[in-house]
Amino acid sequence: MSAQKGEHEQLNFGSSVDGMPSYIAAAHELKSPLALMRQLSLMLEEGDVPVDEQKRMLRQISLTSERALRLTGDLTRSARMSDSLFNLEPINPCQLCEDVVRELTPLFEAHDREFRFVPVRGQVLLVANRDLLRRVLVNFGDNALHYADEYSAVELKIGSVNSGKTIRLGVRDYGPALHAGALKSLKGKLSKSAAPINTRPQSSGLGLFIASQFASAMNGQIGVMKHRDGATFYIDLQASKQLSLL
Amino acid sequence: MKATSVLIVEDDKWLAEQYERILAQAGYKVSITLHALDAIGMIDKSVPDVIILDVLLTGSTAFALLHELQSYEDTGGIPVILCTNLANEMSLEDLEPYGVKQILDKTKMVPGDLVIAIKRLGL
Predict the structure, then answer these.
(1) Which pTM was predicted?
(2) In terms of CA atoms, which chain B residue is nearest residue A177?
(3) Quick one: closest CA in A to B10, which residue?
(4) What confidence tens digit (pLDDT) does each residue in A163-175 have?
(5) CA-closest candidate to residue B19, choices A40, A53, A54
(6) CB–CB of A89/A130 below 8 Å?
(7) Which CATH number applies to A7-18+88-245: 3.40.50.970, 1.10.3370.10, 3.30.565.10, 3.40.50.300?
């Protein structure tokens, strides 16, 4: 992963108003899945849909509702950040990455896309909170699903930077590249307020805002690398020194 | 009689398929694209009778596409129906010069509204 080329920027969203993400951003982000579920439900209510199609629509409703629930769960965690202490521990991220891929695979398959973990050579140990890190990676995966080209694969990769002192977990999608200005607006607008911004056009940026909060709680940082054919959203975390003691 | 052709530009694939389902049942010839850039290519190949357009799209917003359409004589007249979550933040009056004939609110519309909206255009 360290060999990747592209425009690169760390994302520091600062703190939100009263430590809480904007209600407007949350409402905006939830509108799309709710509107889709409503449309599908109304269609099913009207009947006249073949059985196979009904099953497919019901599956889409359940996967979409799970996606929306993940966001509400993350919002709750994010709002409680200031009240909570998150235990940081040495973690082998490989197992966690495999779990994240397993969690999101049904959603990716339903969208005719693949989500895969690219195994890393050697043992890697980083300092993180297991639950928060999982939420960050799921968030990146969700984000990539939306932007990845149809039938393309999204990759979850592990690498190291800063002479091995920092471990980087990145989600690489192969979709439209971020506009040059979007990188700046990611950093600029959200650091001023938690109001909706355009990360990539139709996103409020709320998911990345939450990921940024979670990363900070683990003394880490999120960032994005723009490629010609997509982007890598990543989190940098401190490598655990435990391995060097062995 | 030739079926009315509808181009759906919507980056949520499942929602696009939902629109397609409704419109195909009503007898329309439907094409889907998830990106505004692809839409331009598709329109170049075959000019649709009407475009159903989401506003916040991956890679480029609907407004870039609307501008592009208005730049050419053969596409400037294609009626556009916006289907968006941002309906209450938009004014039809402002968008009419860009070929927008109606704005549907995704959060409030029912499946039949799309067909009604197209029929209102006399198509």
Answers:
(1) 0.77
(2) B59
(3) A202
(4) 889 999 999 998 7
(5) A40
(6) yes
(7) 3.30.565.10
